[in-house]
Amino acid sequence: MANENTNWGQSVTGVVIRENKVLLARHTYGGGKGMLIIPGGYVNFGETPQDALIREYLEETKVVVKPISIIGIRFNMHDWYIAFKAEYVSGEASSDNDENSEVLWVDVEDALSREDVPELTKKLIQSAISEEHGLIYKDYVGNTKHAPYSLYCV
Predict the structure, then answer these.
(1) Element holding 25 (H helix, E strand)
(2) Which of 4, 12, 27, 56 is deepest in the core (most CB within 10 A)?
(3) What is the 3-state composition of the chain as percent helix, strand, coil, each rounded to the nearest 5?
């Protein structure tokens, strides 16, 4: 869960698909309680969104992921939320028994038709499997005064 280093205005999530199955977690609190959602969470101060995604996945699912592309961004008047397509790297999926009660690989088509998968999760899964590739990470050095830099573009 969040700590005093949490940046409440910045959050991330990621869609991980492996062997035509998407990794979902059954949420234990808030508006998503009882629903199967894609894992994610808030960015800590001093942390990049990519590092936050890697940390959140590891904390919540025990799975190591690698962010590949940006498939969605949601803005409102007080925060933003970046959704990545991410690649499975390693680990055996299991619940953190805190923010989620179970973590499971669900067939993509099944996930898109289930009533316990919210609309936002479905839209992001659809975006991840789309023929469109989203914004993809490109190497970029930039001015070292404000490093590290990240560039995602077509």
Answers:
(1) strand 21-27
(2) 12
(3) 25, 40, 35
pLDDT, one tens digit per residue, over 124-144 is 999 999 987 778 778 777 666
Bridge partners (DSSP) of residue 16 are: 86
The one-letter code for the residue type at 136 is I
Structure tokens at 149: 């830099």
To which H or E segment does residue 119 belong?
A: helix 119-129
Q: Distance (Å, rounded) from C-alpha 15 to C-alpha 59?
A: 16
Model confidence pLDDT, tens digit, residues 96-109: 999 999 999 999 99
Are residues 103 and 94 in contact, defined by beta-carbon separation less than 8 angstroms?
yes
- Among residues 13, 4, 17, the alpha carbon closest in space to that of 32 is found at 13
Contact yes or no for 24/61 (Cβ under 8 A): no
- In the numeric block, the tokens 């925060």 are attached to 79
Structural domains present in the chain: 6-153 (3.90.79.10)
In the block, tokens 């991330």 appear at 12
Query: Is the separation of the CB atoms in 61 and 105 below 8 Å?
Result: no
